[in-house]
From TrEMBL:
<dbReference type="InterPro" id="IPR001789">
    <property type="entry name" value="Sig_transdc_resp-reg_receiver"/>
</dbReference>
<feature type="domain" description="Response regulatory">
    <location>
        <begin position="7"/>
        <end position="120"/>
    </location>
</feature>
<dbReference type="InterPro" id="IPR001867">
    <property type="entry name" value="OmpR/PhoB-type_DNA-bd"/>
</dbReference>
<dbReference type="GO" id="GO:0032993">
    <property type="term" value="C:protein-DNA complex"/>
</dbReference>
<protein>
    <submittedName>
        <fullName>Two-component system response regulator KdpE</fullName>
    </submittedName>
</protein>
<keyword id="KW-0805">Transcription regulation</keyword>
<dbReference type="GO" id="GO:0042802">
    <property type="term" value="F:identical protein binding"/>
</dbReference>
<dbReference type="Pfam" id="PF00486">
    <property type="entry name" value="Trans_reg_C"/>
</dbReference>
<keyword id="KW-0597">Phosphoprotein</keyword>
<keyword id="KW-0902">Two-component regulatory system</keyword>
<feature type="DNA-binding region" description="OmpR/PhoB-type">
    <location>
        <begin position="131"/>
        <end position="230"/>
    </location>
</feature>
<dbReference type="InterPro" id="IPR039420">
    <property type="entry name" value="WalR-like"/>
</dbReference>
<feature type="domain" description="OmpR/PhoB-type">
    <location>
        <begin position="131"/>
        <end position="230"/>
    </location>
</feature>
<keyword id="KW-0963">Cytoplasm</keyword>
<dbReference type="GO" id="GO:0000156">
    <property type="term" value="F:phosphorelay response regulator activity"/>
</dbReference>
<keyword id="KW-0804">Transcription</keyword>
<dbReference type="GO" id="GO:0000987">
    <property type="term" value="F:cis-regulatory region sequence-specific DNA binding"/>
</dbReference>
Length: 233
């Protein structure tokens, strides 16, 4: 990354984890600010205007999920949760509150940096306006023309399949909960119809992945939802 313009606020009450993250991110050329409480974190985000916020859920003065809701009341910047909580319901709650991604402790540096790069890339793309073309693997999507090709050959998608793909593209590299996808594609009355989602996600993989049984781009986040990885290769 090596971009000194990238500023990160870490809201984490564990001093050792804050230090680990600071050393890691400063090694990538980032500017890092630390907060050990939700209250201080809110102040720092407001004052520092960061490009990314890293939030722990187990804060001493306010639950991290509530902190995310407060941030989402006025901030559109990417939020990465790093937490020791491993229950699927807790991950879903954080994502539903407005977090963009969730990393479970303990975690490795390469994965942490990869998640951060993906969030910054997606946010930069949104700030520049919606792209008219999107690609992954051998797939190319012309959003303006609503055309999908793979290896240069047209791919026929049903209207629902296309809406599902377009939704994944709008949120590329972000974990989308099953509820989010169902609400956006099928409407608010279908938020519990997870079987619909599994079936149509299978259809997309059959048509777009080289190996649908081992997808490289349309990924399942077990118990939470799905993620579309952007980029070629």
């Amino acid at each position: 990354m090596n971009d000194v313009s990238i500023t990160v606020v870490i809201i984490e009450d564990d001093r050792q984890i804050r230090r680990f993250l600071r050393v890691t991110l400063e090694g990538e050329g980032m500017i890092v600010h630390e907060a050990d409480t939700a209250r201080q974190g809110l102040i720092d985000v407001g004052n520092r205007k960061p490009d990314l916020v890293i939030v722990d859920l187990g804060l001493p003065d306010l639950d991290g999920v509530e902190l995310i809701r407060k941030l989402r009341g006025w901030a559109t910047l990417p939020i990465l949760v790093i937490s020791a909580r491993t229950q699927e319901a807790e991950k879903v709650a954080a994502l539903d509150a407005g977090a963009d991604d969730y990393l479970t402790k303990p975690f490795g540096i390469p994965e942490c940096l990869a998640r951060i790069r993906a969030l910054l890339r997606r946010h930069a793309g949104n700030a520049a306006g919606p792209a008219q073309r999107f690609g992954f693997g051998e797939v190319s999507v012309d959003l303006a023309a609503r055309q999908v090709t793979k290896g240069g050959q047209p791919v026929h998608l049903t209207p629902i399949e296309y809406r599902l793909l377009a939704t994944l593209i709008r949120h590329a590299d972000k974990v989308l909960t099953q509820r989010d996808l169902l609400r956006e594609v099928w409407g608010p009355s279908h938020t519990e119809s997870s079987q619909y989602l599994r079936v149509y996600m299978g259809h997309l993989r059959q048509k777009l992945e080289d190996n649908p049984a081992d997808p490289r781009h349309i990924l399942t986040e077990t118990g939470v939802g799905y993620r579309l990885l952007s980029g070629r290769g």
